[in-house]
Write a structure and sequence with these properties.
Number of strands: 0
Radius of gyration: 14 Å
Helix content: over 70%
Shape: globular
Distance between the termini: 27 Å
Length: about 150
């Protein structure tokens, strides 16, 4: 498993745990950075957790809009964490992570962590959003250049 794969997995772990505890993911992660009892935290993990947290309201709006009949509360918590991370990479990190890679990585994560139906669900939601990704990215960048 490559460094970015491990960073994504660790970011999903933090996002998932923060969601279940009702805590801020960045605060939770900051308690782990530099901890002698835990493995070092990859810089890309920090980037992902901070990015998802900073853009979470818009990410959740897009997920609800494109999940076709699914509310966030109805989604399994692991799927929700993976979708948030995948959507962040898809729209906010597209200069660094090609859309197909963002989707494939999210699907692989959910295959390993969630239900048998989850890969198809995650692929469908992220695929729908990827289809309008260019329009969404230009809207996001026009609205808030600091999130690039």
């Amino acid at each position: 498993m490559g460094a970015r794969n491990k960073a994504r997995k660790r970011a999903v772990d933090v996002l998932y745990e923060a969601d279940l505890r009702g805590e801020d993911a960045v605060t939770l992660l900051s308690g782990r950075v530099g901890s002698p009892d835990l493995p070092p935290v990859n810089d890309y993990t920090v980037t992902l957790v901070e990015g998802v947290t900073a853009n979470r309201q818009r990410i959740d709006e897009l997920l609800v809009e494109h999940a076709e009949g699914w509310t966030l509360a109805r989604m399994p918590a692991v799927d929700r964490a993976v979708l948030r991370l995948g959507l962040y990479e898809l729209l906010w990190r597209s200069d660094d992570v090609p859309p197909a890679v963002a989707i494939d990585e999210a699907v692989e994560l959910v295959k390993a962590l969630s239900t048998d139906d989850s890969p198809r669900f995650v692929n469908g939601v992220l695929g729908r959003i990827a289809g309008i990704g260019d329009r969404l990215r230009s809207t996001l960048r026009g609205a808030n250049p600091a999130t690039e």
